[in-house]
Amino acid sequence: MRIFFTFCFLTILSGCQSIQPSEDFAYKEIVTSQFKIASWQKITEKDADYRIYIEGDGHAFNARGLPSKNPTPRGELMRELSFNDPAPNVIYIARPCQYVKDDACIVSYWTTKRFAPEVIESEYDAIKQIVGNKNITLIGYSGGAQIAGLIAVKYPDLKIKKVITIAGNLDHKTWTEYHKLPPLEGSLNLADDKEKFATVPQIHYVGGKDEVIPSELTQKFAAEENIVVVKNATHGTGWKPVYSLIYQQ
C-alpha cells in the first residue's frame, strides 16, 4: 500500500491514477546534470537485460490549447504497459518535470523544447545511471519515441538491442506541419539522423485510428517491414491486443 499512496501523492495535481505498480517496483528520482527524472524501477536480476519505458509528452496543453502548469501525464498507457511487463528488469522513466518539482522546469520544456539537447542528455544520463553497460531495449510512447530514437543515435555507449515505439512521433517537423502547429523551436529532430537511426533494430506500433500521430506519418519515416498497424488503436486506447507482442520483443 505504501507504493500506491506514494504514486497517488505524486500525481495529485493531475488526479490520482488507477494504475499502480506491484511491490517489485520502487519509486526513485534520478538526479542528472539538468533535471530530476522520476522513475519506477523493478530490478530483480541486475545482470540481465533491461527494458526502459519512456513516457510520452504528458499533459503538455490544457483543454483550451494553452500550456499546462503541470505536464504529469493523465493517460495510463505507458504505466499499465510497463508495470505489467514480466521481464526481470523493467524501468518506467518519466520526462523532465513530470511527477517532480524541479527548479529547472519551465513551460518550454514540455512545449517547444520538449526534445532540446539538454532534455535528451538528461534522459540518457538517467538511463545510464540505472543500466550501466547492460543490454537494453528502449520503448517510447508518443514523444517518448523521439526521445528513444535520439538517445539511440547520439549515445553509442549504450548497448541498445532494439527501439520499440508506440504511436511514436518520429519526425516532429513533419508532425507540426501536418497539424498546422508552430514548429518545436529548440528541439532536436530524429529525422535529421534518419540514416543513422535506420541501422538500429526497431519496430513501430501505429494506431489505425490514431488522429494525433496518423499512421501515414510513421510510414513516411520508417521501413514498411518495421511497422505494425494496430487496426482499432487510437493515440491512447486500443493497444492491449499487442501488449504480449511488445513484451516478447
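That was protein one. Protein two is written in the same sequence-then-structure order:
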Amino acid sequence: MKEIILRTNKLCKSFSIGGVQQHVLKNLDLEINKGDFTIIMGSSGSGKSTLLYVLSGMDIPTVGDVYLGEENIAKLNNDKLALIRRANCGFVFQSIYLLDNMNILDNVLTSGLLANRDKKEVFLKAQNLLLSVGLKEQDFMKFPNQLSGGEKQRVAIVRAIINNPMLLFADEPTGALNSTSSTQVLNNFTRLNEEGQSIIMVTHDIKTALRGNRILYVKDGTICGEIDLKPYKEEENTLRLQKLQQFLGEMGW
C-alpha cells in the first residue's frame, strides 16, 4: 500500500478582484503518494498554479486543509510555515531566481546551510549534486550570467533538493528553455524520481507531462480527471503520447 505524503480536504481558494470574489479552487480533495511524479495540467486560468502554491504552503487556502505528512500546514502561522517548507519542500520555477552576485556553488550552499550547519557536509553534497546534474567542476565558480538557461535551471534543481525535501514542486520548469535544454532538465527530474523523489509539477507542455506517472487535469478550480501512465520509460514514449493525447482530448484540452 502506497504512503500518502500530502492530502487536501475541501480545499478552496478565492481572490477578491475589483470587489468581486473569484473562486479559483473549489472543494478540492487530493491525495499524493510517496514516490509519485504527479503532473498538473489545465488551460490558462484553470487554477493549476494556484493549486501548486497552496499545496506547497507558498499560499494559504481560503477554506479547507492541506496535510503535509501529519501537519496541517493550512493552520500554521507564517514563521512555522516557513520552517516546514524549508525542511520538507523544494521549489523549481520557470523564472530561476538565482542570486546574481553569487557563484553557482554559493547559490546552492546558501540554501543548504539554512537546514544543516555542518559546512563540510553541505559543501561535499552540493558539489556531488552539481556533478550529478551534468555540470562540471570548472563551472562551480561561475556566476549565473555566465551560464545558459538550461545550466541555470539545473543549478536551481540542485538548490531545491540540497535539503532532501519530502516533495519537490515545479512550476513550468522548462517553459523558458529550448528543446535541448528542456530535455536535459527533464532527464534530471526523471532520474530524481527514479531515485525515489516525489515530484509535483505544473506544465502546459505535453512532452514535459509525459515524464509523470500520474496526470491530473484541472478545470474551473476542480480536478475533473486523471490518468495513470505508469513510471516513465523512453522506449514507451509513443504509446504514452497516444494515451495522454486521448485523455487530454476527453478533458477538452
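The longest strand covers residues 4-17. Keep this in mind for the problem set.
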